[in-house]
Amino acid sequence: MEQLYRTDAYLRDCTARVLAVNERGGIVLDRTVFYAAAGGQPGDKGSLEVDGGGICSIATTVYDADKATIVHVAADGSVRPAPGQSVRAVLDWDTRSKLMRMHTTLHLLCALVKFPVTGGQVNPDDSRLDFDIEDASAVDKDALTAGLNALIAANHPVTERWITDAELEANPQLVRTMAVKPPTGSGRVRLVVIGEGGSVDLQPCGGTHVRSTGEIGPVVVTRIEKKGKQNRRIRVSFA
Question: What are the φ/ψ torsions at residue 40 (nearest 5 degrees)?
Fold first, then answer.
């Protein structure tokens, strides 16, 4: 399957052909703009406009059990297209754009909080990262809010580059997450680069992001929660 969002996260729709409908009713296309849930970012939703008439609502997008095949999950009651049919895959762009802005915000949070990441979740309006922090005084809600908005206002470029599996293995400090490691085995790993040369943040990530931090808009750190002896959960929302 051609994953069009990998080369352009701003594509809102594409034409595609239905390759299969699995035993659970999931729809597999030959190409897609829909991001499949991974790395704490939810799968995209939207619709498939079927050639000849009819619309199939897509509730979410996931990877199949093989962790390689992208499956578009039809909403309950939707009439699914048949294998071989042509469709126009259309994103719920409002939700996707919020996820892109939020996901990029969490990278900026990583740049400010210099502790290992123990978990996280990207949501359209309220997202979080969990950090391995023993001393609660090491993070301050107001200071983080000010720091995030300063990085956003600076309008740093957000780009990507690829390194080999061997290069990642030789530079383990690039991986900020403790429990989840970036997928390897394909020979190369995608890095998200914020700021010139990664001056703001540089880490492996397969999600979708905005092209510059200025697109995010104002944000606020709403809560810092204690989740265990050393775990601190930091929540961020759009202001």
Answer: 85, -5
Question: Is the whole model's pTM more than 0.85, yes or no?
Answer: yes
Together in a domain, 109 and 7: no
Provide the residue range defining the domain that includes 129. Answer: 96-238
Query: Do 223 and 156 share a structural domain?
Result: yes
Q: Are 13 and 93 in contact (CB under 8 A)?
A: no
pLDDT digits (tens, 9 = 90+) for 8-66: 999 999 999 999 999 889 999 999 999 999 989 999 999 999 998 899 999 999 999 99
- Could you give the CA distance from residue 119 to residue 121 in angstroms, rounded to a whole number? 7
CATH of the domain at 53: 2.40.30.130
Contacts of 45-50 with CB under 8 Å at 24 or more apart are: 45/91, 45/92, 45/95, 46/89, 46/90, 46/91, 46/92, 47/89, 47/90, 47/92, 48/72, 48/81, 48/87, 48/88, 48/89, 48/90, 49/87, 49/88, 49/90, 50/81, 50/85, 50/86, 50/87
Q: Show which of 40, 71, 91 is a domain's final residue.
A: 91
